[in-house]
Amino acid sequence: MKWTNDCSIGIPELDEQYNRVIERFAFVREIAAKGGGWNDMHLALVTLIKSFEFCSAVEEALMRIDVYPRCERHKKEHAGLLLGLRAMENAALTTGLTEEMIGPAFAATMKHHLIHNRHFARYLPQVRGHA
Question: Under a CB-based contact definition with an 8 Å cutoff, are residues 68 and 120 in contact?
Fold first, then answer.
């Protein structure tokens, strides 16, 4: 879980936010690997969730500014990803968080960024007159 140039979609604001989200995921995985206590895991997950919420808000604001036609669908996907993160938080407080939960949540988040956000990035030149 590390940001690479392949992760970039070419929108600096979003790339910066997803870099932070990846760092937060890596921290959660690190705590899990070390067998950290529920309190450390909970703090890491709350930080991840807050980072993802901010990232989503930035995306959605940019999409509203540029009247992105898939904005509502994108917001629903954010809500679904957030539900997964909250399920991880709940597991950390009850049954215990496992790698089987962290890996798929990370993969879904990256898929969202690399597919849906790249689609948005391709849309921007069309509406800003740089196509």
Answer: yes
pTM score, whole prediction: 0.90
CA atoms within 13 A on the CB side of 105: 28
Instruction: Return the closest-CA partner of residue 128 out of 67, 58, 55.
Output: 67
Q: Note the helical H segments in 66-117.
A: 71-93, 99-111
CB neighbours of residue 63 within 10 Å: 20
**How many CA atoms lie less than 13 Å away from 10 in the CB half-sphere?**
10
- Over residues 51-107, the pLDDT tens digits come to 999 999 999 999 999 999 999 999 999 999 999 999 999 998 888 888 788 999 999
